[in-house]
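seq as requested:
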Amino acid sequence: MNHICIMEQDGSVIRSTGSHYTVMFADGRTMECRLKGKFRTKGLKNTNPVVVGDKVRVVTDEKHQIGIITEIYPRTNYIIRKAPRSSSPISILAANIDQALLVVTLHRPPTSTGFIDRFLLTAEAYEIPVYLVFNKMDLYNDDDLELLDTFAKYYASCGYGIIFTSVVMHQGLDELKEVLHNRTTLLAGHSGVGKSALIHAIEPSLNIKIGEISAYHKKGKHTTTFAQMHPLSHGGFIVDTPGIKEFGIIDFKKEEVALYFPEMRKLLPQCQFYNCTHDHEPGCAVKQAVKDGEIASWRYHNYLSVIHGEEIENAFSS
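C-alpha cells:
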C-alpha cells in the first residue's frame, strides 16, 4: 500500500497574481501555491484574501508540486487603499512590512502633495515608518530644486525620512541601500516615478523591467502588473507594487484624521472641543497654527480634502 507523505510548513507570500501565489520558506525554497477554497467564502472585502508579505501555512505532499495555503496568520500591519473600479471596496498593497518608501517626482510624472499626504495618513494609522524618496533629481532646474527643498524640509520636520535620488547621477543610492538593509520595505508611487529603475540600480541581479514616460500624457507606463517581494543580496526584502494612480482613504472618522498628521496631533489637546474637526470650530489650535504659519497651508488643505472626501489635486504644487 502506497503512503503519501503530507508536509506542513510556514512561509511568506512573495508574489500574488490574484489566483496563484509564490511562497518562500525559511530555507529560501519557493513553491507555487493556491488557496484552499474555504477562504474565498469568508466574505472578505479586500480584492484578494492573500497579499504579498502574508505569513501562511502551506500543506504539500511528495506527489504534487503545488502547495495549498490552509491558514493565513494574523497581520502585524498593512497598507490599504480604496480599490478603484473594483467590486471589492479595498485593496491591500502588502502586509507585515517594516517600512515604506514613497517615490515621488515633481514632474514626468507629477506627484501631488494630496497623494503624498493620503499615503502618509494611512501609513501613520498602521504605525509604518515612511521615507519620501524624491527621485529624478537630474531633471530639475533651480526653481524646481527650490520648491523641492521647501516640501522636503517640511516633511522632515514632521518626522519623515527624506532621500534625494537620481539613477543617472548615482545620487542617494548608497543611502537608499542602507535604509533597505535587513528590512522588509514597501516601495510605492505613481507609474513612471522610477521605482523599478531604483530597484535595478541597487540590485542589478533582479530582473526588473524598466518602463518609459509617455511623451503625450507625461505619465508613466505600467511595468509592474502585480505586487512582488524581492530578496536583497545585502539583506532584507523589497516589495515592488504596481503604480498607484489614486490613493483613496477609507475607515477614518473626521475627528480622527488629525491624529495621523504629526504636526496637528501635538496640538489637539489645545483645541477648545475634544472632538474638534479643525474645520469650522472656534478655539481650534490647528487653525491658529495654520494662520501663524506653523502648519503649511497646503498641508492643511490636503487635510480638509480628506475629511470632506474631495479629490486630490493633479500636480505637485504648493
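The radius of gyration is 21 Å.
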